[in-house]
Amino acid sequence: MSIRPPSSRVTTAASTRVAAPATAITAPPAGLRKGDSGPKVKQLQDGLVKLGYLTKAQAATGPGTFGSLTEGAVKKFQTAHKLPATGFYGEQTAAALKKALGKPPVQNPPTQPGKFTKPPVISAPSPNADSRNGTDIDAIVLHHTGTNNGKGDLAWMRNPDSKVSANYMLDTDGKIYQLVGDEKRSWHAGKSELHGVPTDVNARSIGIEIVNDGSGKTPFTDAQYKALTQLVGYLKQEHKVPAANILGHKDVAVPKGRKDDPAANFDWNRLRKGIGG
């Protein structure tokens, strides 16, 4: 298949002075729609930026103005939370936003730098896998699913008629589904090569599908980046995968240009910084 937190700057006049905690981002009251403006709209935009449904650059084009970009971000949030995608910020959407913003941040264990434990996964076995035939894992390949429908993507990769799968799938809410055990060869890369050398990439890699339509306009969510950092950090450590072998499907697909995932707006720098290389 193609299938931030704000930095806090602390200024101290003396070593005994303690910096005040950053102001928490909260959900504004319901009742906002396209055409509205003011501080409540800015509060809504801040919340959508924090959760990854709106970029800072997009919000900066109309801070405090409920325009098309904000409406689109609200619709994406509604879709991700199984609400009618109306673009109107009503009672149900406000309640869902309040809940999402109130969740404690995902902690990437453990406390020692460069050490990761396997994050919680939901077992969702797929029959679309076979043996690695003794091939060692030395690569991790990232994909976007090509839709924003995690439930549908999961069902497709578990359907024997699809002939596709991945070892893991990350939904928009950060949940990680394991479809194929690490020890098995999932069917995610197709005809491929590694650094220009033809090879069976499926046999030597872990495939990770990230739920995203791949348009380059739909943001990958903050929850996805946090979960992906923990998962890739663990897999890199567990299988001793070189940093140069953590790639996108577009980097291994043959011929070049056959695939474009993960999409152009995927933040590789954030991932590489999080896993330490």
TrEMBL record:
Q: Where is the signal peptide?
A: none
What is catalyzed by this enzyme? Hydrolyzes the link between N-acetylmuramoyl residues and L-amino acid residues in certain cell-wall glycopeptides
Bias class Low complexity marks the residues at 21-30
Which classification does the entry list for the species? Bacteria, Pseudomonadati, Myxococcota, Myxococcia, Myxococcales
Highest taxon listed in the record's lineage: Bacteria
Q: What is this protein called?
A: N-acetylmuramoyl-L-alanine amidase
Q: Domain N-acetylmuramoyl-L-alanine amidase: where?
A: 126-263
Question: What GO molecular function annotations does the UniProt record carry, in alphabetical order?
Answer: N-acetylmuramoyl-L-alanine amidase activity
Q: Which InterPro entries match?
A: Amidase/PGRP_sf, Amidase_domain, NAMLAA_amidase_2, Peptidoglycan-bd-like, PGBD-like_sf, PGBDSf
Keywords linked to the UniProt accession: Cell wall biogenesis/degradation, Hydrolase
Q: What family, per the record?
A: Belongs to the N-acetylmuramoyl-L-alanine amidase 2 family.
EC nos:
3.5.1.28
- Residue ranges of region Disordered? 21-41
What are the recorded Gene Ontology BP terms? Answer: cell wall organization; peptidoglycan catabolic process; peptidoglycan turnover
Q: Which PANTHER family did the record assign?
A: N-ACETYLMURAMOYL-L-ALANINE AMIDASE AMID (PTHR30417:SF1)
Enzyme class, top EC level, equals hydrolase
